[in-house]
Amino acid sequence: MLRRVLRVLRDDPRTVAAHGRKAGVLLSGLGGVGKSAVAGRVMARVSELGWTPVVMVGRWGLGELAMTIGAQLVGHQEEALDRLGRMLVQTNLPDAVRQQQLHALPARYQVLLVLDNFEDNLALGGRDFRDAITEDILLQLLQAAQRGKLLVTSRYPLPRRTMANKQI
Questions:
Q1: Is residue 168 included in any domain, yes or no?
Q2: Is the residue at 94 inside a domain?
Q3: Fewer CB within 10 A of the end CB, N or C, for the chain?
Q4: Is 29 contained in some domain?
């Protein structure tokens, strides 16, 4: 499992040839099967390769996502990521700017954005999102992923219209 996830995240030529280039990976399954443990191992491995993992656990909105990610980036040794983190933690930052800066993260930087326990953002059974804004943010992050990638853990698969994008 770990090797397969890393191949997708690193755009391994064999994986890209077989499945196309992906913006990230979804680890889904029953609670307690080790999705978060695999995510932790992936974060350790990509860190060794020079990537910056950032983690958001559970339910979130734009403000929570920006503040949590920003706090993890403040003090980063890469000046641009430190600057981005300092911007994201500003409480008076307009939502449009927050969103723009969050999209810059996987677009410009070798960052692994881990969305752990993502099922908390889904309605019971995972058929739909609790909040349309969360779905929009996720789709925009997936579309922005160029240098960085997303790793999502969830008890449920993502809703069909999100999966229809085949980005993850």
A1: no
A2: yes
A3: N
A4: yes
What's the confidence (pLDDT) of residue 90?
Answer: 95
Cα 127 to Cα 158: distance, rounded to the nearest angstrom: 8
Residue 56: CATH number of its domain: 3.40.50.300
Distances from the Cα of 80 to the Cα of 48, 58, 100, angstroms: 20, 27, 15
Q: What is the pLDDT of residue 161?
A: 59
Angle at 134 between CA 131 and CA 25, to 5 degrees: 130
Per-residue tokens: 67: 């503040």
Give pLDDT < 50 ranges for the chain: none
The helix-helix angle for 62-73 and 95-108 (nearest 10°) equals 50
Distances from the Cα of 79 to the Cα of 4, 52, 73, 150, angstroms: 32, 13, 10, 22
pLDDT per residue over 58-104, tens digit each? 999 999 999 999 999 999 999 999 999 999 999 999 999 999 999 99
Our count of domains for the chain comes to 1
- pTM here is 0.91
